[in-house]
Each structure stands twice: as structure tokens, then as C-alpha cells.
Amino acid sequence: QTVIRFSNWVPPTHPVSTDVIGKWAENVKEATEGRVEIEVISPLGNPPSHIDLVQNGVADAGFIVHGYTPDRFKLTEGPELPFLADDSRSASIAYWKTYEKFFADAGEYDGVELMGLWVHGPAHFFTRDKEINTLDDMSNLKIRVGGGMAKYVAEDLGTVPFFAPSSQSYEVISKGVADGIMFPTESVYNFKIGPAIGQALEVPGGLYRSSQGIVMNKAKWDSLSPEDQEAIRGVSGLAMAELAAKMWDEQDAIGKEELIKGGTNFKTADGELLEEIKAKLSVEEDKWIAAGDGKVDRKAALDYLKEQIKAAN
Amino acid sequence: MSAADRDDAIDIRLLGPEPGLGWIAVALKLFIAVILLALMLLTCVDVVGRYVFNAPVPGAPELTEFGMGLLIFGALPLVTVRREHVSIELMTVLFAGRGQRLQNAVMQLTSLVALALMAWQLWERGIGLSRYSDSSIYLGLPLAPMAYFMSMMSGLAALALLVSLVWRRG
Amino acid sequence: MITAAIGFLVVFALLFLGTPVAFGMGLVGFGGFGLLVGWKPALAMLGQISFETTMSSSLSVLPLFILMGNLITRAGLSRALFDCAYAFLGARRGGLAMATVVACGGFAAVSGSSMATSATMAKVAIPSMRRFGYADSLAAGSIAAGGTLGILIPPSVILVLYGILTSTDIGALFIAGVIPGILGVLLYMAAVAVTTARNPDNGRPGEPSSWTQRLQTLRDIWGVLALFALVMGGIYLGVFTPTEAAGIGAGGAFLFALYRGGLTSRRLFAVLVETALTSTMMFVLLIGAVLFSNFINVAGLPRELSAWITATQAPPLAIMAMILVVYVLLGCLLESLSMLLLTVPIFFPIVQGLGFDPVWFGIIVVVVIEISLITPPIGLNVFVLNATVPDIPVGTIFRGVAPFIAADIVRLAILVLLPGVTLFLPSLMR
Ligand code: NA
Ligand code: NA
């Protein structure tokens, strides 16, 4: 029996731990008839370091958020663009297919074995009390962002992006250090920011989404028998994208329901406001396409991604 | 002697050169003092800026991260030659002279090994970070130079400890 | 589990032979990881952990709170605090010792360290108590014990580290420390009362003060009150995060020290250097502890221990009692930071699994660490006092702290049996 040590920095009760990592571990065990066991252990380092921890073999496997090491993952910012999809499922399935067709040869995962990747649900605009009716209402609000696409979007919208590490996002919002946050609905609920959030502006298609994945140490992967590798492949990749997306979509729904119960006022951006937001954010697609080094046809990849999102719906 | 005089006596010992480092120690002390003062000011300016002028310092937590790296590792050679790494002085308590000599030898040897390992692996870390030109998420500041800095400070700490040993023997 | 147990034995052997605690934990963590997982990963981990542990914005709270305490020390507030407490309590039997304890509690409200609290208060309280013919044992004992409050009454570097290690809200931990801290002051005063009732010669009453004098001294301590209100009020009301509170507190202490005068550029330089050195000492310790806890983690100790404890089906309170006994015994030998860093990674998952509140456990851990600071043979506060007042022998101080250890045990029992005492204030926060 081979034991794979999975260093998990997400809290053990978080749905990523229970419904994604935990379920995947069960699936791996079942698919390999118990020959491979994923043993989930407390984290061996901080979240951004997990790509290196896995690459160096400190951990055998780990969960990564691509935006934490933006210099290594340029392509993932494509599926993070605004307005792509209203859910996690269609975007995640399309993302995996786009990865296989366009990104796999780009070498972004050299040194590790990619088990699967996906994006969380659409991010919306949450504020403590300010109701957003026009673009002007957003300007100069202090909005907590992590970095990457969220930061670009916050700047494009004319807000004051306020950087706080993800571990402190709860603190800065609930204590009113920031005026609001761009997050998927699920995160606002699960990070328990809800009580501090009075207004939610849902933006159809989402303001951004964050790309995530699971990687395994290369040597560990190579040590598995081809039969077991095949079996693990069967429950990873597309299956993993579906697993994770199902969780995110469920959590978004639960989060919205609970936030409404808690008194958060939800409204959807439409009409002039939506047009203005779209106009402000349209630069991001062009920027991403233009930023390529020519190895990957980014325009074609984005078109394919959008096509696959439609197909998945 | 008044209390104020005694304070100044402490100052002189705290601020001067150190065994194994000589006057480099004074430069390091100035460096860490400036960094610490800057960290304090950065937080104050950030909070006041945020509340009074609606203008937080962009990426203040990231600047703090870099400041912490400079502060902690900048002071490492000093802490090392001043023998301020916490140790349990049971040997000294139990068997005075002989115990103390054994304790000293163990302390110096393990410190040297640990610091040398840190210097080596932090350098490797720097190489790893520069391979992808990894930078901080928000401000995009390169991370590798910080790892190289930490490596050099660990190396300096090990070297200074060695020099101070030879000095004492010789 | 065997591997981890051997690891522990090797750490203890190295520490008792004189290895600095940080390097002992770090080297054993590195070596154990190398044996279990491989040497290449172990080396890589060494570099990664050293780097990422240091490059942390939330940990800037440590140097900044230490700076705040050191600046306040230089501003001469310890004298003002002692004078004030003396004006109210000095005329009672054992009053100076009681005043010392109260002043320690006040100083603890602006300093995050127990050793600093003891060292500072020793300079002002020992001469006064000697003038009134106090027994050295009572004088030194009250300062060594009173100083331990430095890490319980917020701000506290130990609570910060506990919060970081266990992902517990540091603000909540700080607020939770207030009532147990006040309880500590009251019980220490009771310890002084009992001691002097049995040996009236140990602490004769001082001179009574008039109300005018009392109010006068109150005016001198407004700085401590203001700074405490600024820092804790800011955290409590959510104006800023604990990390930011540390910077604001240090800035406030800086302005206050300027206002009080005497903060020459030379002294400022000394305070900054001193703070940086202490911080680095702590961070190296933290790096060593993280390396060691990674080894314990891959060796499977916390999981196996938890499983074993669950299997025994003992009542949670009995297990808690066992853990506390282990703490008190370890505390005789270990220094406070090392004890926290070595034990929390092992005990916290168990305690959490048993359903105890993480904030409550944090306070309990701090209280047992406070005890460790004054129990022989290794009692850091006792050593600090001996270094500050060399003519009082260590043995005398250990004798003097005995009644205070008894008070600590009473306090520990109250806090364990009545969690509401600790959790009442944090429950109001949100
Ligand atoms: Na304190
Ligand atoms: Na002790």
C-alpha cells in the first residue's frame, strides 16, 4: 500500500477539506482498491508555499491556489476573467478541457503532477452598508482584495483596493477596516463575514473567479504502478473539476440563503450599471490575450473556453 | 549612581561593537533600528491614512513582510554573538564549572551546524524563487533577494560565532 | 508514535546538554523529517520554513508589542504605577507587596512580556520594600510572581504566538485574558495577606497617604490607562486588527515617551536594538518549533495520540487534568516560549477534538506557563529578578514565590472549572 501525505492548509471543517479533498481521497482509495491511500495531514507550510512543498517532496500532495504564486501561473488568469459564467460547474469543466487542449504543453506544472484544476463560483460585490446603484457608488470604497484578477477588477472599477492576506480577510471586513469585499457568495458566508455585510450586488457572470487545483509530487506519482495511475486519473481531472464545482455551487446557494436570512440585501446589477461595469472591465480580456508569449494561442483558448462553458450549460 | 546613569551604561554595551563582528555590529544595529522604526511608522501611517484620508498605504502588509525579513535576519548575527539564543542552563545550575564548559561546547557546535544549514538552504530557496522570478502578490516585489539576504545573514552569524571562538581561545 | 517519542527524548537531551532551544528543536525536526521522508525534502523544508515564518505581516505584532513595552519602560511609568498603587495600599500590612502586585498588573497592560514586567518593577519596588524592612523573600516573590501577569493581561506575546499556532482570533484571546488577569492580581494580594498574617514581620505597613496624594498619583498614570484604552479599545471595537494595534501602541508609547522627556536619540537607539534582538530570538525559536512540529506531524503523533485518547473514553475533564499536570511538570524545566511551542502542536488537536474552546485553552495554557516562570529549578522570572537584584539568592526567591504558586493553582482550578470566567468578555465582542 502506498500512502500519499496530503498537506492541507484549509481548515478541516471547510467544504474544500470535506467535500473535495476528503471525497477525492475516498475515490482514490476505492479506485485503486485500497492500494493507494491519501493521508490528509495538518499543513507543513503556509498556503503560497504549497506548490514548492509538493515539488520538493516535503509533502506528497497539496491543494494550491494559483493566484498565490502569480509568477508561475500566467495562463490560469484566463479562466479567472470577469463575466464568463454564472456558476462554478460550467466554467470548471470548460477550464479542464481548455487546459488539456491548450495549456497542458505550456510547462506551467513542470516538476509536479497536476491532478486537477477548477475555478470557484462567480465573485460579486459585497459592502457593509453602501447600496450600489451606479458606478459612482463604488468609487473610493475600500475593497479587500487578495491580488491577481481581483486587484485588477477593483482598480478598473475605481475602488480603493485594500490588500489583506486571505487569512485576515475576515478580520478586516467584520471589523470595518475595509468597506467591502469582492468574493464568491460562499466565502462571505463561510468566512463568517455575513453579519458585517448589509448589501450584496450580484454581477451576472461574476467579477472574477479564482483558479485552484491539486498537485502531486512527481517522484511520488512515478512510483505508482501504471494501473494505479490510470485508476487515479479516472477520479481526477474532469471528475475532480466536477467534484469541486459541485461543492462550490452548493456552497454559493447555501451562502446566499443564509446571508439573506441574516439580513443581507441582495440585488442584481442590470441596465446601465451592468453596462458600465462591463465597459470598465472589458480591458481585462484584451490584456490577458495580449500578455501571451506566443507559445499558447490565447485568443483561441479563450474562445474555446467560452464555447465549452456554453456547451456545459 | 542614579537610575539614569545606569540606563546609559546599558546603552553603551548595547550599542557598541560585538566580539566576532567588530564594527560590523554597529552597522547592523543601525540597520535594524531603522527598519524597526520604519515598521512602526508604516503601520501608524497606514491606519491613520485609511481612517483620516481614505488612503491606506498600498500593500502595507507586504511591505511589513519584507521589513520583518530584514529586521529578524538583520539581527541574527547580533543575537548569535551575544549568545542570546534561549537555552536551558540546567548543566550550569547542576554542575558549575565542568558542566558550563560542556554546555558551552554543545551550544557553539549546534549553533554553528544549524546556522550553516540555514545559510545553505536559504540560498537554495533564493535560487528556487528566482527560477520563476516569484514576486509578492500585490506589489510584485521580487522575493528571491530576500532569501539571499537571509542566507547571507545566517552565514555571517555562523562566521562571527566562529571568529569569536577563535578570538577567545587565541 | 515511537519515532516522535524518540524525537522528544533527543530534543530534551540536546537542550539539557546546552543546545539553544531553537536549534535543538530545529535540528531534531530536520533530522527526524530527513529520516522519515527523505533528506532532500528535509533540506528544502529548512529553507522554506525559515523564509516563510519570517516573511509574515501578522507576526510583526511581536516586535511592535515588545517595542511598546520597552518604550514604556523607558518612560518611567513603572515608577508612577508603583507610587499610585502604594498610595492606595501602602498603609496595610503587606501593603507594599500588594502595591507591587497591582503595579505589575498595570504594567502588564502595556507590556507583552513577563520578564520585562518583573525586571522593570524590581527596579522601583525592591528599594521601597527594603526601606520598610520587608523580608527579601516576600519582596522578591511578589515581583517574580506579579511579573508573570505580563503574558496574561493583554497585550501578550505568548497569546499572539498561541493565536498564530492555532489560528485562534488574537483579539478574542487578548480580551479573554482581562478577567483571569484581574483574578490573578486579587489572588496574589490574598497570598500576600496570608503570608503577612502568618509572619507580620515580613511586611510591616508603610506610611498612609492622603486622598490628595492618591489623586495626584492617579494623574501620573493616565499614560498607561490611555495606551491600554487605545490598544484594547481599538481591538475590542474593531477599529483595527491586533497586528495594527501593535503598531499603534508602539507609536503611542513613542509619543508618550517623548512627552515624558528623557528619550534621547541614544536611548531610542538602544530601545530599538534591544527590541530587535528579543524579536529575533523569538523568531529563531519559532522557526525551530515549526520544523519540529512538522516532524511530529509526519510522524503521526497528534493523530495517534488523539485516537488513543478517544479510545480510552475518559471524561474530557480528566484528560484536561492530565494535560495540565504534564504542563506543570514540564514547566519546572522548560522556558516559557519553548514550552508553548513544543506542546501546543501536540495538545491543541486533542483539546479541540474533546470540544474545549480554543480561546479558553489559550488562557489556560498561559496560566500554566505563568506557573512555569516561577517554579524551580528553571524559573525564568526568578532568574530575571536574581539578575536585577543579585544580592537576593535564587533560593530565597524560590521560597518567596511558594505562596504565589499556591494562588496560581487556585486560579487554575477556578478557570478550568468555570470556563465562563474566561469566555464572558470575548462572548460580548460580536
Ligand atoms: Na501584557
Ligand atoms: Na519552571
Automatic annotation (TrEMBL), chain B:
Q: Provide the membrane topology annotation.
A: Multi-pass membrane protein
Domain Tripartite ATP-independent periplasmic transporters DctQ component: start-end pairs: 39-166
Q: Where are the transmembrane segments?
A: 21-43, 63-81, 102-123, 143-167
Which top-level group of life is the source organism from? Bacteria
Keyword Cell inner membrane assigned to the entry: answer is yes
Q: Which UniProt keywords apply?
A: Cell inner membrane, Cell membrane, Membrane, Transmembrane, Transmembrane helix, Transport
Listed under GO cellular component are: plasma membrane
What main location does UniProt list?
membrane
Q: Name one Pfam family in it.
A: DctQ
Q: Annotated Gene Ontology MF terms? A: transmembrane transporter activity
Q: Name one GO biological process term.
A: C4-dicarboxylate transport
As for subcellular location, the record says: Cell inner membrane
Q: What protein family does this chain belong to?
A: Belongs to the TRAP transporter small permease family.
Q: What does this protein do?
A: Part of the tripartite ATP-independent periplasmic (TRAP) transport system.
Could you give the subunit structure recorded for this chain? The complex comprises the extracytoplasmic solute receptor protein and the two transmembrane proteins.
Name by which UniProt lists this protein:
TRAP transporter small permease protein
From TrEMBL, chain C:
Bilayer topology term? Multi-pass membrane protein
Q: What is this protein called?
A: TRAP transporter large permease protein
Stretch forming the signal peptide: none
List residues of the TRAP C4-dicarboxylate transport system permease DctM subunit domain: 8-420
Q: Describe the family membership recorded for this protein in Swiss-Prot or TrEMBL.
A: Belongs to the TRAP transporter large permease family.
**InterPro entries cross-referenced by the UniProt entry:** DctM, TRAP_DctM
User: Does the record's keyword annotation contain Lipoprotein?
Assistant: no
Pfam families, per database record: DctM
User: Which locations, inside or outside the cell, does it occupy?
Assistant: Cell inner membrane
Alphabetically sorted, this entry's keywords are: Cell inner membrane, Cell membrane, Membrane, Transmembrane, Transmembrane helix, Transport
One of the record's GO molecular function terms: transmembrane transporter activity
Purpose of the protein: Part of the tripartite ATP-independent periplasmic (TRAP) transport system.
Q: How does it assemble?
A: The complex comprises the extracytoplasmic solute receptor protein and the two transmembrane proteins.
Keyword Plastid on entry: no
Q: Where are the transmembrane segments?
A: 6-39, 97-117, 138-164, 170-194, 221-239, 245-263, 275-297, 317-348, 360-384, 404-425
Can you cite an annotated GO cellular component? plasma membrane
Predominant location: membrane
